[in-house]
UniProtKB/TrEMBL annotation:
Cellular localisation: Cytoplasm
Residue numbers binding L-serine: T239, A240, E241, E293, S393
Name of the protein in its database record: Serine--tRNA ligase
SUPFAM superfamilies to which the protein is assigned, alphabetical: Class II aaRS and biotin synthetases, tRNA-binding arm
Self-association state and partner proteins as the record states: Homodimer. The tRNA molecule binds across the dimer.
Species lineage: Bacteria, Pseudomonadati, Pseudomonadota, Alphaproteobacteria, Hyphomicrobiales
Catalytic activity: tRNA(Ser) + L-serine + ATP = L-seryl-tRNA(Ser) + AMP + diphosphate + H(+); tRNA(Sec) + L-serine + ATP = L-seryl-tRNA(Sec) + AMP + diphosphate + H(+)
Domain of life from the UniProt record: Bacteria
């Protein structure tokens, strides 16, 4: 959530920021004008409330003076005035809550302001390559996509998953099921033992206010799954960013404890409401998938450096697995709602003959902290500031499985296991068909 004081002082800057995020100029100007008008109405009402409260206090003193001087008529007149003021204040407090809610509702749907060095653009075609790691090998004519390999191995079953749950689910078996587990464990061990992240096992279902804190609500409600709970509901997490970031909600963290770095391996649940017709085959876009998440909580001076560090931690996963990748700086039109700057890491998939996203690392500034009321004690101990939050995939386990399958596939249909994973696979070097004779293709 943006700071309304900053908006009042910098309305033109916010209009320009919204336009960079592909808002039409008239819509951006209207949204900013509406915010300022809502805030002005709220401030005028608060001023009137304060004036009435001051008059009530003064009239109460005047009643005492009138009673002492024996002026009963004046005392009664003042009492009537105080009664009217009390009624106004009672109604005024309810009106204050209405005005607060109206302002906060309008603020809640505004995206974050991009940093100045973020490239301006409309969509993924305007993203900029930051670096490329690893060479893309020549593509043999026998190369297949991951789902073709997995089905031929007898270890990836989409038909049975559809019978159980519908589309965008997968049943993994045998060696591929074990490899997915191995990938998650490998990533967790790397981030905890070498990168200094604290492993967390968070709840997988959270309250609405927690989803609001990280920006999923109210704007992206259709992308979420919910389950009834008591008189309300709980949302299934779309990413572990949600519970990990909210670990500091409504807290004041001592400065000396920063930065906080958390990691978790969890299932994630997404309705994929906006992706109809995209990546319908295979495991690239699922309703349920595993991901290792990275979250950092920093002070305001450290967040940009932490963003570079977090991205390098995610990249190291792919380096250890020997997977070619490139890191992209997302343009303003392709960046997430709560981000000020985002790097996407795209792994090479020879089956698709394309780079595909496997990690997204974002710095959010104090945008989420304002929604969560998450603060830290300043260095001098005299004041409190909003923390800065960062999140990234370290990485998406299912997509890492896809990348390993496609990059380590062999002409005979087997998949070589990367050396980094072999300790997690009992020393196994290769995954081969579970069939004596692979089924006809």
């Amino acid at each position: 959530m943006l700071d309304i004081k900053w908006i009042r002082d910098n309305p033109k800057a916010l209009v320009e920021a919204l336009q960079k995020r592909s808002w039409p100029a008239a819509e951006a100007q209207s949204a900013v004008d509406d915010l300022i008008a809502r805030d002005e109405a709220r401030r005028e009402h608060l001023t009137e409330l304060q004036t009435r409260q001051e008059r009530r206090n003064a009239a109460s003193r005047e009643i005492g003076n009138a009673m002492r001087s024996g002026d009963a008529a004046l005392a009664e007149k003042l009492k009537a005035e105080v009664g009217e003021i009390k009624a106004f204040i009672q109604n005024g407090e309810a009106r204050e809550r209405e005005l607060d809610k109206a302002l906060n509702d309008a603020l809640a749907v505004l995206p974050n302001v991009p940093l100045d060095d973020v490239p301006v653009g409309k969509d993924e075609h305007d993203n900029v390559v930051k670096r490329t790691v690893g060479e893309v090998p020549a593509r043999p004519n026998w190369v297949m996509e991951h789902f073709e390999i997995g089905e031929a191995l007898g270890m990836m079953d989409f038909e049975r998953a559809a019978k159980l749950s519908g589309s965008r689910f997968t049943v993994l078996k045998s060696g591929l099921a074990r490899m997915e587990r191995a990938l998650g464990q490998f990533m967790l061990d790397l981030h905890t033992t070498e990168h200094g992240y604290e492993e967390i096992q968070p709840p997988l279902m959270v309250r609405d206010e927690v989803l609001f804190g990280t920006g999923q609500l109210p704007k992206f409600e259709e992308d979420l799954f919910f389950a009834p709970h008591g008189d309300g509901r709980l949302g299934l997490i779309p990413t572990a960013e949600v519970p990990l970031t909210n670990l500091v909600r409504e807290d004041i963290t001592p400065h000396e404890k920063l930065p906080l770095r958390y990691t978790a391996l969890t299932p994630c649940f997404r309705s994929e409401a906006g992706s109809a017709g995209r990546d319908t085959r295979g495991m690239l876009r699922q309703h349920q998938f595993y991901k290792v998440e990275l979250v950092s909580i920093t002070d305001q001076d450290s967040s940009l450096a932490e963003h570079e560090r977090m991205t390098e931690c995610a990249e190291e996963v792919l380096k250890r697995l020997g997977l070619p990748f490139r890191t992209m700086t997302l343009c303003t039109g392709d960046m997430g709602f709560g981000a000020r700057k985002t790097y996407d890491i795209e792994v090479w998939l020879p089956g698709q003959n394309a780079y595909r996203e496997i990690s997204s690392c974002s710095v959010c500034g104090d945008f989420q902290a304002r929604r969560m009321d998450a603060r830290y004690k300043d260095k001098d101990g005299k004041g409190n500031r909003f923390v800065h939050t960062l999140n990234g995939s370290g990485t998406a386990v299912g997509r890492a499985l896809i990348a390993v399958i496609e990059n380590y596939q062999n002409e005979d249909g087997s998949v070589t296991i990367p050396e980094a994973l072999r300790p997690y696979m009992g020393g196994l070097e290769k995954i081969e068909s579970k069939y004596a004779h692979p089924p006809d293709q």
